[in-house]
Amino acid sequence: MRFIARYKKQIAAVFLILFIVLYNTTALADAFSFARKPMLFMGSILYTAGKPINNFFTALFKANSLSFQIASQQEAIADLNFKLNELGAGSEESEQSFEQLSNLFGATIIKTRVISSHLSAGKRIVILNKGESDGIKEGYAVITDHAVFVGKVIQAKKDFSAVLVVTDSSSAVASSLASNNNVQAIVRGKQGIGLEMDLIPQDAVIDQEYVVVTSLLEENTPQGLLIGTVASVKYTEGELFKRASLSPFFSIHNLSNVGVIIPNNIE
């Protein structure tokens, strides 16, 4: 035993050399190869069978995560709509609100009523019961009595006018953050129901619940009209700009009394 303990490394080396010689000069290599094939075959079957299971749990996790995000956004939108409904005003109060906004912006505001809303030539528009005879012209901004930007007049007839709402896909409005007028971007309509803020500088500080308003750069439109709140921000490393999804401050189905802003610079 002492002999083995003393020379165990040398004995192990001898056995290793003998094993290598036998492996290369006898049928031992074939035996090992034969035994390895079933093991590889079983491993392949287990891997193939486990792959769908792994994909299932991965998809389940992503679905749960997406559902949570959608539920959070819906909750935020519902909360916003509730707050706006609480601010709902009657006809007389609406008139007073437009007067206050007129003094605030230093511009004439023509109070009018939405008589219909529909798709026309693929565009989401609302029809107002006042037109050119009341001083309304194409390009004028339309707002609610809570200073929410609705859209722009795209056609004015004698007794009625058509407004392209800000959520229409063909709408594009110069915008900024209410908290930082130096952050300038473009708000585009999204499928007639949503909004997306584009061309946001990458170094701009913007996050969920930030309020987006009209910019001084938007023609015939006062600065600071409410557009929407940030729902999510999209950022890709290396790109020059960020994008953000917005929740509008109004629903086209709830529009009734609106105001058309007459710019001060008209002749």
Radius of gyration of CA atoms, rounded to a whole number: 34 Å
Taken from the alpha-carbon principal axes, the silhouette is elongated
Question: Which sequence of SSEs, written as H and E, runs from N to C?
Answer: HHHHEEEEEEEEEEEE
How many distinct beta strands? 12
Task: Output the number of helix runs.
Answer: 4
CATH class of the domain at 172-251: Mainly Beta
> How big a fraction of the residues is strand?
25-35%
Low-confidence stretches: 59-84
CA-CA gap between termini: 116 Å
Give the CATH H-level superfamily of the domain at 172-251. Rod shape-determining protein MreC, domain 2
**In this structure, how is the largest beta sheet organized?**
6 strands, antiparallel, barrel
* Strand order of the biggest β-sheet: 1-2-5-4-3-12
Look at the helices and sheets and give the structural class: alpha+beta
Mean pLDDT: 78
Which SSEs are present, and which pair or pack?
Blueprint: H1 2-6, H2 8-25, H3 28-86, H4 91-105, E1 108-120, E2 123-128, E3 141-143, E4 149-156, E5 161-165, E6 172-177, E7 180-190, E8 194-201, E9 211-214, E10 226-234, E11 241-248, E12 257-262
Antiparallel strand pairs: 1-2, 1-12, 2-5, 3-4, 3-12, 4-5, 6-7, 6-9, 7-8, 8-11, 9-10, 10-11
Describe the structure in your own words.
The chain is α+β, with helices and mostly antiparallel strands and 267 residues long. The protein is 36% helix and 33% strand. Among the domains are: 49 residues, no CATH class; 80 residues, Rod shape-determining protein MreC, domain 2 (Thrombin, subunit H, Beta Barrel), CATH 2.40.10.350. The N and C termini lie far apart (116 Å).
